[in-house]
Amino acid sequence: MGLTTSRRTALKLGAASLAAMGVPQIMTRAAHAETADAADLYAGIRTFRVGQFEVTAIRDGGRAMEGPHPIFGENQDAEAVAELLEENFLPADRFVNGFTPVLVNTGSERVLFDTGLGAGARQGGLGQLRARLEAAGHAPDAIDVVVLTHFHGDHIGGLMEEGGPAFPNARYVAGQAEYDFWTHEDRLSGPTENSARAVQANVVPFADNMMFLAEGDEAVAGITALEAFGHSPGHMIYHLESEGERLLLTADTANHYIASLRRPDWHVRFDMDKEAAAATRRRVFDMVAAERIPFLGYHMPFPGVGFIETLDEGYRYVPASYQFEL
Ligand SMILES: [Zn+2]
Questions:
Q1: Which of 124, 178, 181, 291 is most buried (CB neighbours < 10 A)?
Q2: 150-204 pLDDT, tens digit each
Q3: Mind listing the domains of the chain with CATH numbers?
Q4: Distance between Cα 137 and ligand 1 center (Å)
Q5: CA of 22 to the centre of ligand 1 (A)
Q6: Mutual orientation of helices 193-202 and 176-183 as an angle, nearest 10°?
């Protein structure tokens, strides 16, 4: 669903002026619907600066699901999870899982972190990254680098479009450990089978044009990869620094702003190694809290940017407000 010329026109003119021009009522209604649609498109785009870097958080979509328990707090009683959620004004039986890829324009390159769920999820209202990138002024062929934090489906789903590369001029960056894990032949059977097949379809075709990173390696100048293993065996996060300003892209280190941060040790079904993921959560968010730097989490409430305060037990998530407007 691209923002077509007719949509742009409808947006510019608005329904009232269309009616004034004698456009039949039925068309006015259609224009209304499309305008609302386009407004949603723009609502999922948030741009701010980190030094010279222009950072754009893009909402690929949000999915309402049953839970958070037992996805979050898998090793806890449902009552304990419900109590924490209710204390924080959240329902205990439903939650929204959001997906937020990030575009960083360094001034010389456009670097996209993760690709959302892709075309397969578009009928359900997700997979909006592509349309929103375009709406934000970044055509798919203008993307120079695609960085993959890890290879779960909600991060690699948007690499292909209609059987070809979704970002035809991009080079690719991924963690060496993540690539080695998912492309090992043992992964093609058992519980990893579906994910491994998705990796074969979406990631492996780009291997010849892929740079493989380990701890401390730079994806591009000013953007450094850090190991954050546990959620997946080679899960990487990225530290941005420009003119002394910093932002940590924490990807899937913590995936619910209350359950995962207030109770970082609770097991999470999506974490492939539960104990390693919990240890990584503590290490990463201890650092975010101690250094008082902003972070952006892929599954935090859109636009996913916030700060961390250490509490007696776990952490408090403090969503960013106007810090980036000053
Ligand atoms: Zn994810």
A1: 178
A2: 999 999 999 999 999 999 999 999 999 999 999 999 999 999 999 999 999 999 9
A3: 1-43 (no CATH), 44-325 (3.60.15.10)
A4: 25
A5: 48
A6: 120
